[in-house]
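Before going further, it is useful to explain how the protein records used in this thesis are read. An example of such a record is reproduced below.

***
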Amino acid sequence: MKSRVRLDLFNKHFELDRESSFVKEITWYLVKSFFFLTPFPFPNYFKSFLLRLFGAKIGKGLIIKPRVNIHFPWKLEMGDHVWIGEEVFILNFEKISIGNNVCISQRAFLCGGNHNYKVSTMPYKNGKIILRDGCWVGANVFIAPNVEIGIDTVVSASSMVNRNLESNSIYAGNPAIYIKQRWE
């Protein structure tokens, strides 16, 4: 059987709706490399300032640990008192919205970018991600594009989320399945 995948025909010149200039994007990569991807713990207020400078909408009380990779800050909204753990990766080709009092634990991957594997040239298939108020994304969780996690929902460590999750619930596994209510 011969493969039908044709990556040689992938549209290399396809432009995402980057919503920024080339200069802004390159400047962000330099800033990100020095102040965000480093193990040095720069102050949270300074990182919040830099994110706002590049167009992110950031509430008060952001805690953002070292080695956090944010792809496009201008496509990021975060509410008040958000905690982002070490080595979180936010791949936001589309808008990612994070509510108030949300905890995203170490090495979680919010993946707003993907490819359509049903087409032989595998074009981009990106989508937004919404984390509602009070949710907790455990360590090493993968969240796929076009997913909304409900209010006060917990996603246990190392889970994979590829569909919307109801509010006030605990989910675990790959794929993540409902376990029980968070608050009785």
